[in-house]
Design a protein that fits this description.
The protein has one domain: Rossmann fold. The longest helix has 16 residues. It is of the alpha/beta class and about 250 residues long. It has eleven helices and seven strands. Strand 6 and strand 7 form a beta hairpin.
Amino acid sequence: MFQNLIRRWDSHLRKYADRNLNRSDLVKDKNFQNIYSKVGPRKSKYTLAPMERCYSLYKAIKYVTKASISGDIVECGVWRGGSAMLAALTLMENQETHRKIYLYDTYEGMSEPTDKDIDIHGVAYRLLWKKEKELLTVSLDEVKKNMSSTGYPKENIIFVKGMVEDTIPNTVPNQVALLRLDTDLYESTYHELIHLYPRVSSQGVVIIDDYGHFQGAQEATEEYFKKFSQEVLFHRIDYSCRVMIKPAAPLKVS
């Protein structure tokens, strides 16, 4: 049953694939390919993120380790744990297993979308949410098993179960080196930015996975950052994913 759901989802994702992308540099990076082979190929289905987003996350983790950016790794919206597994494996590759990995998710499926949550084609997310509830629901036990397979120290993997609106900010780390937001929806994304962005270290990394695909995620991001007088640069990884490095100078409210 799960494989049938995955095949149907693959068909859906192919609509957005850029077939003109040249991945030769990604393929040549053997260290990345070694890690990607454990989490990324379609047969594993630990993540739905395409190779470009996985490589961006891989390079971002390497950046925060090499640049000695203080803080932990935080992901909101975990699904089966593929991106977190990639982060853990990359931290291990760089001997950085002292960092904690915080994983926020309901582990019972996605919260109900609102009218703000519309996809790139103008289709209400609520329709997809109703149709794909089984695919979107992954238990905490399954994610724990998947994360355990990486060999990352168990005591440094923090699973936080519940809606982020309920669990954040009560369970957040003091400092965040890399923040990855993948809850898709307006309300959750805005809540995460309010409480977690201020904790991101200077020159730390912020990743918004569905900025270009879901209107709610984009609107929440733009609404949060428009209150500051300075511009921030969100680099385009693909049609959907955006990445920024937090400016060294504190942002000032305009």
